[in-house]
Design brief:
nine-stranded mixed β-sheet, four-stranded mixed β-sheet
Length: 369
């Protein structure tokens, strides 16, 4: 047995990735602040019942729970920060004029890891706009998410939109399911199982084809919209996509629901070149207040570790400063953006200090590779 081992799903963040993650979060929060999103910093754990029921249609099923020795009540370590921001907006900032714009960054902990995402603890940063889930609010949130990723150096960004309440709207309107189960239909559509969908509710088969590049998928979905039940949603979705058209790749999968359990009319996933899987997710949702009243909101979360692992941050740029260098010169170079690493003894070398450049005769020179 060794004391150096960590539990499954946990890892240390070492240089240069830990520094890269910190810079990335700072750039994301700075981009959000430029749009009026002010930072909040909720605690790592809180009462389970408050965490589980703050967002409508969600549960803390993925939370690590324990009994607080002080209150003797069950606490939960947050698996997501969105519900905590909702609590702050509904209580501590309940008097604030709407909409409230808040940003955050911190660690979250999941009870179990997935096969495609084995990490149980990860860093999350994002923004929430509390009080509105209109098209204008959605356009702003998607724009801020894209600008935050661009500020962090992420390239090859794509946005995949979904309509989380689509099946509910259709089954309650033009395409009732009768004896069929909505969950069964959703599972078949998730799997793109045309035979299964045909056996349950053949009227929903066109939804399988209404996925792919945004414009073509949107056109197919509009053609499917018999009776106009989806007209307002589809018009709104088009306007949201227009906000970032030309800056990112756009796709649409209208029945995708994995990870969108508490979203209402709009959801979206974020992807980037070099990253495995999604690097962020967002959408509209509903906050439940203490008196049971409900409030619309919309926001996004970015997964810092996934972005850094995908190369969405600049690499080391360290300048070795030899022994005896004028401190004023080193200070000047730091002011120009260099990370200076000073030699502290005669035998020190740039290689030992993992430097990429060296200061020779007052000039910055790259190390030979």
């Amino acid at each position: 047995m060794t004391h150096a081992l960590l539990p499954s799903g946990f890892h240390d963040r070492l240089p240069p990735l830990a520094d890269a993650a910190a810079r990335l979060e700072a750039r994301v929060l700075e981009a959000a602040h430029a749009h009026g999103y002010e930072r909040v910093d909720p605690p790592l754990a809180e009462f389970e019942d408050a965490l589980a029921h703050r967002l409508k249609s969600t549960r803390a099923q993925d939370a690590v729970r324990f009994v607080d020795p002080v209150s003797q009540r069950t606490l939960a370590i947050r698996p997501d920060i969105t519900a905590q921001v909702g609590r702050i907006a509904a209580t501590r900032m309940g008097h604030h004029p709407r909409p409230v714009r808040l940003s955050y960054a911190g660690s979250v902990l999941r009870l179990r890891a997935g096969q495609l995402s084995p990490e149980r603890e990860r860093r999350q940063a994002g923004c929430e706009l509390i009080g509105l889930d209109t098209v204008a609010a959605a356009r702003e949130i998607v724009t801020v998410a894209v600008e935050a990723l661009e500020a962090a150096g992420v390239t090859g960004i794509s946005v995949d939109f979904t309509l989380p309440d689509l099946l509910g709207v259709l089954s309650a309107g033009p395409f009732p399911l009768g004896e069929a189960s909505l969950d069964d239909l959703a599972n078949r559509l998730d799997a793109k199982d045309a035979g299964g969908v045909a056996a349950i509710a053949p009227a929903y088969l066109p939804l399988i084809e209404a996925a792919g590049p945004f414009d073509a998928a949107h056109d197919r979905l509009c053609a499917f919209d018999a009776g106009g039940a989806l007209t307002s949603r589809l018009d709104g979705l088009w306007k949201v996509a227009e906000a970032v058209r030309g800056r990112v790749a756009l796709t649409l999968d209208p029945t995708e629901r994995h990870g969108f359990e508490y979203q209402t009319w709009l959801g979206f996933s974020l992807f980037a070149d070099g990253a495995l899987g999604e690097i962020g997710r967002g959408g509209s949702y509903t906050i439940v207040h203490e008196d049971g009243s409900e409030e619309a909101a919309i926001g996004f979360s970015l997964y810092t570790d996934a972005i850094v692992a995908g190369g969405g941050e600049d690499a080391r740029r360290r300048l070795f400063v030899p022994l005896g260098t004028d401190p004023a010169l080193a200070a000047k170079l730091r002011g120009e953006g260099w990370v200076t690493v000073a030699a502290l003894e005669a035998g020190d070398t740039p290689e030992a200090q993992l430097c990429t450049h060296v200061l020779l005769d007052g000039e910055v020179r790259p190390l030979a590779t």
